[in-house]
Amino acid sequence: MRAVLQRVSSASVSIDNEIFSSIQGGIMLLLGIECADSKEDIDWLLKKIINLRIFNDKDGVMNRSLLDVDGELLVVSQFTLQAKTKKGNRPSYINAAGPDIAIPLYEQFIEEALKALNKTIATGKFGANMQVELVNDGPVTIILDSKQKDF
């Protein structure tokens, strides 16, 4: 699983010009699922995301986690994070999981996030054409890959 997370002061997903979901303060997460992903990838990635110390403490130092600040989480499925760009100019998505694999893992990720944060998780709509708006706070943007834990 690959994820791009951004610390946000607000974020929303719109579908057909209507807001589908939104958050006020926390993490906006783009999640790319590949064919080889499993529950182990969910567990590692979610633990990393909710415990990353990327929120400011009272001294302005990034020393607090999403759990510490009681922040919100918006999760948007994005298969293009699995793009291979080594050859040519047309990305290949051969490693991106199809809906039969990706949807259950996406839903399981959201369910596990709900348990870990003990609050509603805002989401996009799998497979929909979405418009994502956010105010990146900092800016803070981090890339995580469960297959490259030392990345």
Structural account:
The chain is of the alpha/beta class and about 150 residues long. It has one domain: D-tyrosyl-trna(Tyr) Deacylase, Chain: A (3-Layer(bba) Sandwich). It contains 3 helices and 8 strands. The protein has helices spanning about 40-50, 65-70, 100-115; strands at about 1-15, 20-25, 25-30, 55, 60-65, 70-75, 120-125, 130-145. The strands form 2 sheets. Strands 1, 2, 3, 6, 7 and 8 form a 6-stranded mixed β-sheet that branches. It has a two-stranded antiparallel ribbon with strand order 4-5. Helix 1 (about 40-50) crosses helix 3 (about 100-115). It is globular. The chain starts with a strand and ends in a 6-residue tail after the last strand. About 30% of the residues are buried. The mean pLDDT is about 95.
